[in-house]
## 1
Amino acid sequence: MKEGFLSRRQFVAGGAALAMAGVFGALTGCTASGSGAAAGASAAGASAGSSAASSDVLTMVWLPDNSSADLSAAREAMGQAITDACGREVELLTTTDYNVAIEAIASGKAQMAYLGAEGYVQANKKNPKVLAAFTNSDEEGGLDGACYYSRISVLSENADQYKDGDSYSIENIKGKSFSFVSATSTSGFKVPSSAIVDQFGLESSDELLEGGAFFSEVLFGNSHQGSAVNLLSGDADAAAFDDVDVDMYLNLVSGEANSVGAVYQVKDDAEAPFDTVRGKQFTIIGITPVLNAPICFNEEAISEEDRTKIVEHFCSDEVANNPQIFVDPEDENAKGIFEKASEKTRFVEVDDAWYEPVRKLNGAE
């Protein structure tokens, strides 16, 4: 198993054209329906891997949120499952930039990727041959509740500034400093920015990209962990980040999980980047469910035979019951990307149509 790293500098040096993805709307629920695929021209070189021999190394690219050192065992377990499925050696390509991960799968440099819903839509727009294949299920083993959560949070010591009767609201975030994850992050920008646009009647989320318009200052954490640390370190007054990428570092100390008013505290033994903010607390003042992220293929860069083998294996009971892939949420020492929320939790097939709501929000295409 090989693990590599791809930076923006390396991609630019290799001639890849990096473009900031457009930002639109927001997702407001867990369930989805609809059909259709986004239009877009194929990225240069994407077809180069279409005839690659099955013995060639298969590359899977990861977003910054899943590229940290403490998740290396989880990535390796996923890589081993790919090898078990199709017999190919796997390279796991980590990144520190959302756009680099998107460009890697769109261009065919990587044959597989684990992307957020918005990242997937952007990759598919760049190259329609990038298609969703499977995702992690809800607790019933299906897709109806297959979602995670986008949070807008503030330091608990300042939470009273955001009180709204017995609860909280985002009404007082205007004029404050704010941290997003990346402009191509679903739960770290697209969803929370849309909530802010709707709440304040803004013309577009473009007003939220730079300080001086709506916020006094705008930061980007480049990962959900980074955005949370921007808040907890005091660099930002409020921040957007999800639950699945940060909760392994946290304890719920009051309130109901993933609800407005819930208070979380960084664990005393939290690893980097949370080691500098151990014991700090934040309070959720806004929250929205988000469609689970897909694992996708660049179908020009990997054969149909290999795709079929990989999907069948990942959707099998064997993978569903692999504790290195679906970790026990009760095990505080377990570091994983996916949790075994119930006995029925597993990977399930998904297609491009399931992510159509992400395209259609606020009329975005």
## 2
Amino acid sequence: MTTSLPRRQALGRLMGLSGLAALGPSALLSPTGALASEPWPTRPLRLIVPFAPGGAADSSARALADPFATALGQAVVVENRPGAGSAVGVKLAAQARDGHTLLMGSNSMVINPSLQPAIGYEVARDFEPVGMVSVQPLVLVVPAGSGPRSVKDLVAQAKARPGTLTAGNSGPGTLAHLTSELFAAEMGIDLIPVPYKGESALLPDLLGGLVNLGFLNLPSVLPHLKAGKLVALAVSAPQPLAELPGVPTLRSQGLPTLEVQGWAALLAPRGTVPTEALTRLEGLLAQALASEPVRARFAAIGVAPHPLGRAPTAAFLQQEERRYAAIIRSRGIRLE
């Protein structure tokens, strides 16, 4: 007797499900909902940068896009989503469930939760690290005509003129702001924070002597140091910088807690990228950071490759979050 069409379709579906079940639950679905045997990635990757184009995080992302695309066989599209001190882009990445979204995170992603309790994401809960990408030290600078030629001179000036020295920064709650607060606390001095909308807005007033000091990124201040318009008193890197011979580290000035650097890290929204794919990305990241083309592009923007695997990066992010939370709490920093 001939089986009816609906019954044959039902039997076919049953046989298909039975065949999949025989493979075991681990073979059925990946975290992204695709068959586990399906290669990853299956379409172009979106790499969210939570800042406007042109900064260190953006440039780092673009330097990695080409080698990743070549190795993965899919385009890597850098998508800039600035706003709210990076919170807009980070939250967007945290909510992405497509399995093909990555984030180029930075210091601000671990600072912001302490400043904005209702920010809508938690770093450890919502992200899985692929690895660290780059670091960029800060330089403590003063206007050339302001007098200080060392950290000791600056501290003496601040103590002689209590409550009068101004510290320009690139915005409330930024790394530059928190570093100046930490510096003031460690040295027992008062500094008046003066926020600007980025380093480009701060520099004219710093050059003109309208603010007394600032912690800025090396690429921003290097031309003005060479021109003799600014003086570098110290760097926040673990070691002296080749670009600034003779300028000591803050650690060597008795300030180990001020070993502070801007950083970029590559992350994925938790539970969206298969574990084996994360491991592959970790390896590709290490290869890219060791390659001459990427190292040359990093050098051009004043950042240094900082290869660090998934587990050490996770521990580092937790440490950074605790560190900045303590500074924000002890100094009573709030966003107005």
## 3
Amino acid sequence: MRSTLKSILYTIQLLLLITVVICSATAMAEVSDSPSTLPESHSSLPDGMLLGEANRLGADKPPSDNFDLLDWSLTLPTDLNKDLKADTIYEKPLSSGFELKPLFYTADDGGMVFACPNVGAKTSKNTKYARTELREMLRRGNMRVKTQGITKNNWVFAGAHGSVKGKAAAVEGNLEATLAVNRVSITGDEKMVGRVIIGQIHATDDEPIRLYYRKLPNNQFGSIYFAHEENDGDDTWVNLIGSRSHTLPDPTDGIRLNEKFSYKISVENNVLFVTLIRQSKPNITKTFDMTDSGYGKSNQYMYFKAGVYNQNNGGDPRDYVQATFYHLKNQHPGYRD
């Protein structure tokens, strides 16, 4: 009897060990920072060289004179028409000189400023946080094209069905940005303080990526990390510098407020590539295989977002986040060629 029990226990231990090994191998396959896995669009990025040409920006111009904003709409944390939803500035007015200080305007150095209070109007009842954020609009002002759905306003993954690809504006693509986070929230719940989303891919309901900057009140440096949300599933968190912890000591290689840095987010053949670029430092790149994340389904469409999506909804109502963008470029194979 004892020998039988020992045999059973040994078998159970062996199965548990095999399960752990399989799970570890799967996790390594999903998230990778191996240079050999990178496409040319990321491997060719020079180390330590910020993207864009900030010296071409004019301080005396509205944002749309420095940046091509016809590919974007702007969500504001205001509700001027009292419809209980955040206001939206669509492509044509946004690209025709729109500014609204202190939320969206041109800085003294020509950068495009986004600021958002902790407490502000939200896009829907299901949204917890306010934002001053651009939403990609590939229709470029053609109001006959619907903003939602598989239309010429949005893009899809390579794993989508051929008929879906034909209806979309593009298949996959990338977003480049150079920015400095000028301020983060300093009041309210300690689990929310200091958090702001500075770039996204939004899908039909979920987010293949949310890119975060976070600096805690007692730290000099901030972290950069991202979340990958499976379609109708859970988040996987990936650290680039530091972590999302609300008790994190100063990240030794972190990014200060007002320090310029660049990021590039790409989707190629269902794989997510995220590169962080800092001046005179080695680039950091992480990859995530999204093949099994559910975004190749026929009802899934994508669009990039950039700006500040405040991840603190409490504390002092005068508290706010702010970032200044010096480069912003969205690209899709075959789009506007």
## 4
Amino acid sequence: MDWISPRRLNRIGMLNMNRRNVDYIARYNDRSSYPLVDNKLKTKLAVGEYDVKTPQLLQVVRQQHEISHFREMAEDLSGFAIKPAKGSGGKGITVITGRDGDDFIKASGARIPVAMLERHLTNILAGLYSLAGTPDVAIVEDLVESSPGLAKYSFQGVPDIRIIVFQGYPIMAMLRLATKASDGKANLHQGAVGVGLDLGTGRSLNAVQFNRPITLHPDTGLALENIQIESWENMLEMASRCYEATGLGYMGVDLVVDAHQGPLLLELNARPGLAIQMANGCGLMPRLKAIEGLKRPHFSPRERAQFAMKSFSRMQ
């Protein structure tokens, strides 16, 4: 059946958007913390104080005249990513994976001259991709090279891991894999694949695309049932430390596994979507209630991560 009643969804613990907004985002997220997570540069600086690694920052472009320094900075680089600090949903992000003479090569294989990248920086500063259309800042980061074990499952784009963190506890996670339909981006709304991950082990559970179950990646053809995330406990602890760094009680933490540096934080989200429940085949409500019902909260990120692994594993 393609349709399921609201009563049954409630019975299996699915969190809906209204309840997420009122009972969790509005209740547990202080609005004063929003600018911290809505700005990638501020996020990077804040989490760095809590030993959460991020991709290396190569350049910050705040003013139009600073764009002239981009050409010099990128002279010897073969790979990097340009991002609007206040962009959302992956908008405005340009990933360069190679170079051919004076041209740069995008992840899709398209060639792009440096003058076009400079125009892109101008558009970012003008606020073309910012949340409210306000003037923005462009950041240039070192290229993330996904670990081969995960990269093979994704079409062109770098796979990432979304972890929902509530009151400092990781409570649900999924792997997001880019597809041809999503244009190489790990965005579920655009057609990326979401793979639910067992919180106790980091192993794959279910997989969905466009909210429908699948067993094979539509482009790579690889089975999605035996994926194992490396450094899993370390990733959960990193996600947990973002609670101290931001003070946000309900958030999405997006991580990648770099081939050389291991787990890195990409960004934080104060309004994470709900499709993670579809990927996991279960609702968030029982886990949210379990954390709310704790009589003795755990104070260290490691303790919270270990508690979550033990309490929310489905492979016990």
